[in-house]
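task queued by scheduler; priority normal; single chain, no ligands, no partner chains; default sampling; output format set to structure tokens
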Amino acid sequence: MSTNRLFLAVPVRLYSYEQIKHDFSHYLEGKWRDEEHLHVTVAFLGKQFSADVLIEKLSSFKWSFEVSELSRFDYFSNSRVFVATTQNPTLQHLYDKLALVLGLEKIKLNPHMTMMRVKHIQDSSAFSAKLTSVPAPIGVLEPKIILFQSHLYPTGAEYESLKEWIL
């Protein structure tokens, strides 16, 4: 049985995901995300709306953000995820506009793309050093927004693209 949740995200294209996996697999144990579903979440909506209602509400929404590069690696220890981040204030502006239209709470975004939910770090100090030694940029945001439905299974999340808006 799965739990279905909706979210809006910007897809990401990495310059060399295979190289990233090669460089960091020595330090990390966990499951790498499928490259085709890598994204930066702009708004998590959960079960607040049905997909049809959400698509209708957003049918005349003016989508806009600046395409930017993912500029650094990070590890979020509270959620145990290995990520790439972007410094892009236009994503916050996009969320703020969505919050007004959809009645979402005001939050401060921390734009990132999760590559792995980490089960174990082999050598914490070497991993920390590696985080800063890989040259940027890592990848780029694509100029579109996707409405995803996340299906949660015991084996992990699977993402289904329901609607795409091209900028």
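post-processing summary
- The longest strand covers residues 3-14.
- The mean pLDDT is 93.
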